[in-house]
Each structure stands twice: as C-alpha cells, then as structure tokens.
Amino acid sequence: MEKRKEIDILGVNILYFVTAMLLLTVGYYVQNKDLKMGLVITEYVLVLLPPLIYIKLKGYGFKRVLRLNPLSIKHSLIVIAITILVYPIALFFNLIVMTFISTIGKIQSPPIPTANNITEYFILMVIIAMSAGICEEIFFRGLVLRGYEELGSIHAVVISSLLFGLFHFNIQNFAGPVVLGLVFGYLVYRTGSLFAGMIGHMTNNGIAVTLGFLMNLVKDQLPQSNMDTMSQIPNTLSLSVATIFVGVIATITGIGAYFLLRIIIKDTKNRKENRDIEDIRLEKEDESIEISNKTSIYVFTPILLTVIIFIYVAYSQLKYMMLQ
After folding, report:
1. Is the pLDDT of residue 279 over 60?
2. What is the chain's alpha carbon radius of gyration, rounded to the nearest angstrom?
3. Keywords, A to Z (predicted)?
4. Alpha carbon of 6 to those of 12, 107, 265: distances in Å?
C-alpha cells in the first residue's frame, strides 16, 4: 500500500528551482548543440526525472500524488475539444504581450523547430507534443499541483499555472502558458486524472506543430517576394490587428469551452476524490491562521529566486530586442 504523506511545499519549491536552473544551463547547452535531441534530453532527463526521483525518495506514492487514475473516453474527447477552443485564448494573451513589446523592440521568432516534410512533422509531434505533454504534466499538474493543495485547490491551480509560465523563461511566451496551466490544472483537479492534463497538453502542442508545418507548406507554394514579406517580423500595427481578430475568435471559442467544461463539472460533481479535496480545502480555510504560521515566507524563497532570474532573463531579452 502506498504511504500517505503530506507533501512538503518547500521541497517542491526547491525541486522546481533546481530544475529551472538545469533548464537554463544544461537545457540551453544541449539544445544549442542539437535542438531536437536537446529537447528530448530536456524533457526526459531534466523535467521528468527529478519529480519521479523526488516522489520515490519521499515515499509519497506515485498513483496518489500524480493522480494516475483512468479518464473516460467521453472526458478525453471533451478535454481535446476544450483545448482546441482555448488555444485562441492563450494566443490572444501572448499577442497582447507581443504587441506591447513591439513598441520598444523587434519581436523574436519562437525558438521552436518547425517541420518541412511529413517525416519531420511526425518527429516533432513525438518530441514537442507527446514528450512535453507527458513530462511537463507529471511535473506541474502532478507534483507541483498536488504539493500546493495544502493551500487550497484554487490556490494550487493558480500557483502551479504561474510557475508553469515562469518555467518557459520567455517574456513573449509567458501569458499563454499561464492560461493553459489554469485550464489543464482545473481539468486535472476536476477529473482526478493527470491524463486530462496530458491529453490537453499534447493537443495544444500538436496544434502548434501542425500550424508550423502548414505554414511552411504554404510558404513553399508562394512566390519569393511573398515569402520575403511573410518572413518579416510583424510590426505593432499588424500585431494590433491580429490581437483584435484573435480576441474576437477567442471570445467565441471561450464560450464554447465554458459549456464543455460545465459537462465535466456536472459529471464529476459527486466524485469521491473531489469531495475529499474540497473537505481538505475547507478545513484549511477554517484554520487559515495555522496555515499562515506553518507555511512561512521562507518556504517560497526558491520561487522568489526563480522570479528574480526570470525578470533578469526577460530584461536581457527585451534589451536584445531593442538593439535589433
């Protein structure tokens, strides 16, 4: 039988900080050497391995901590649909940030490989969609989300999503991951299954890989003059127009995502694990003084250090853009 222990928030935060530093150093190095192989090493060695080792050494129990519970086919399909509908919302928030940045510097192309043929497409689907969907969800919607439930389920979802955004260390791609983290976190909490987050994450990254592949196919069919135009970094005006356009689409798709989410909420209303978690949350809220004493500020020191480093990286990125 698995040991039922309360997860240490400080331990989770230290692990997060160490993993983030490995991402910035080792991850940066291996991806510079070989981007695709570097991404594989980053996901499976730097992101997946630390939480698995941590859970094993602490004796928490993989099934309980990671919520390795089955997800119904119905809910799997709904998660896919919700992710597709939420994609424009995440893009909208990224575009807002990019529009602001474009007023002070040049927007940088995302450092993500795109496929030029069907073979590369399937390779990238495995690396970017499947691998990231498994490894990052085990870390964030698995260990981090469960660890922060001591502070209440809503706090856990919000904090884990913010940490997910910080983990990308990219000012242009901070807001989008936070939005996705909120959605995936709530889906995992509501369904009681980490597979909801994995399926959603794979779907989102799969959309990005597919769009990149399709854009390359379109470029191949266009005259050179048009290709040169498409390759130019978008200016503030074009980004503003794109933001408004995507914002309208995001509003419509967001309504659809909400109604689909209501189906999952209705289906899981009486699920035992939700009741147990809710009871824990209510108990913690009733004992708010005890929590504040127990979870002192020093517990969040690793997160504060990560935020400081993120700000420095973001400043460096903005400074580089201003010089272009």
Report:
1. no
2. 20
3. Membrane, Transmembrane, Transmembrane helix
4. 12, 44, 27
